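pasting for ref
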Amino acid sequence: MPKSQLQCYAESIYCTGSDLLSNLNSGKTPLDRLLLVVAWTISTTRPLRFGVAPYNPTLGETHHVSKGNLNVLLEQVSHHPPVSALYGTDHQENIDMTWCHSPVSKFNGTSIETKVHGKRQLKLNNHGETYEMNSPNLVIRILPIPGTEWVGNLTIRCRETGLVAELNYMSQSFLGFGAGRRQIKGKIYDSLSQKILHKIEGHWDRTVKVKSTSKAEERVIYDAREVISGLKAPIVKEPESVWPTETALIWGELSQAILSKDWEKAREAKKIVEERQREVGREREAKGENWSPKHFVMSYSKEEGWDCSPIQKFVPHAPIVTL
């Protein structure tokens, strides 16, 4: 199904077969909770289909979806450069997350590598814990064998406890074969004492295991089959409450044309979306108005990059839901 990049970002949060997010509070110790956060973070790096490019979100485009007690809201807060903001809240578990995505792509001859800049933050408010993390890079390989993979280093740091998880999404061989394909390795350590507490190893599209450095025990903390199988697409429960900026409304005609393989209609639908954006921009310029996001406050610095803060404390329940 064709979809906007906004929806792709959001689906890594709300499209899950097993609910890892609401389970984060179940950890009895800070280390237990960090292990759960590690598993949840790995679940947001999904295998992607080669050759399926999402739509570039329009300025001000939104995506608002609910799953159970989790409400997620995204807004395209900048078009040049592209920056997307995400805020999700689970009022029952007292969990919230804020993501700011600013992808920058570079062509490397046989592949395209996209670095996802911006801050990611997850708060377990019942425990007074804030986890900060980054994103690995997305690589789209063109030659010799087409495919996609996540590569690079991902760090998860808890401000309050000083516990840190470092994960390395390992790059596969040039030909794309071997045991290293989609492999992940890492460790969890105490940043105060520098003591390594756990070793992490596995494959992010299969299973990931953790092994204690003090005990002879090893266990699976993440199973991709449980998390990303049997996923269901969002459905509109309250059509009259859907915002006009919702991604499904903006790109609906284009998506239907693509699914129907009516390429002439698809080109026309895409042209209408693009021209509407230009017209709104011209009107804003003529009035001397500066555009600002409706749901987020944005900031940028050379040192910190892009950052976003939600205007509302809680994301309201959405008219679009997923099971």
